[in-house]
Amino acid sequence: MKENSETELCPRDDIAAYVDGELSTEAAEAVERHVRACAICSRALLDQRQFLAALSASLDDSKDIVLPSDFAKRVVSNAESSVRGVRRPYEFLTAALICAVLLMFLLFAFGVETSAVAAAMGSIAEKLLSIGGFLLRIVGNIAFAAAVVARALGAYTGSSGILIPISIFVFGVFAFISSRWMLRRRSTLMSRGEV
What we know:
Layout: H1 15-20, H2 25-37, H3 39-59, H4 71-82, H5 89-110, H6 114-156, H7 163-192
Helix pairs in contact: 2-3, 6-7
C-alpha cells in the first residue's frame, strides 16, 4: 500500500486488532511487514501502544479511592431529593400540551392511515370507557348494598345511631380485606401462568 504524502491515510484497519493480539500468525506477520514499509501505520501503531501503556499505568495506580461507608445511602437520598414529578399545575399543563402535539404529529405522520389509526384509538377508548363504566357500576352497587344493609340494621335495632357507622366500618374493612386477598390470589395465579 503506497502513500503519496504524509497527509494521506493508509487504509489499514487491522492495527488495533494487531495490538490487541486478535490476529492470526499470518495476518500479524503481514501487518508487521506493512508497518515496516508504511510510516503512517508505523505512527498509528506507536500511538496505540502509547495509549495502552498510559491507560494501563493509570489503572495500575496504587491510589485507591476510598468511598464512605454510607455512600449508597447518600446517592439514593440525593437522587430521591432531586426527582421532580408533576407537582405544579403548569407542569401538568405542559405535559398535556406535549402529548397533544405528539398526537397531532402522529396523525399527520400516518397520513392516509389516519382514519384507521383514529378508528383503532376510538375502539380502545370505547373499551376503556366500558370497563370504567362497569367498575363504576360495581362500586355503585356495593354502595347501594351497604346503604340497604345499614338501613335494615338501623330499623332492626330501633334506630340506634351508633350501629350504622359501625356496620359501615365493618363492611368496609371486610371489602378491603377481601379485595386484597383477591388481588394477591390473582397475582399468584399470574405468576404461575394460570391466568
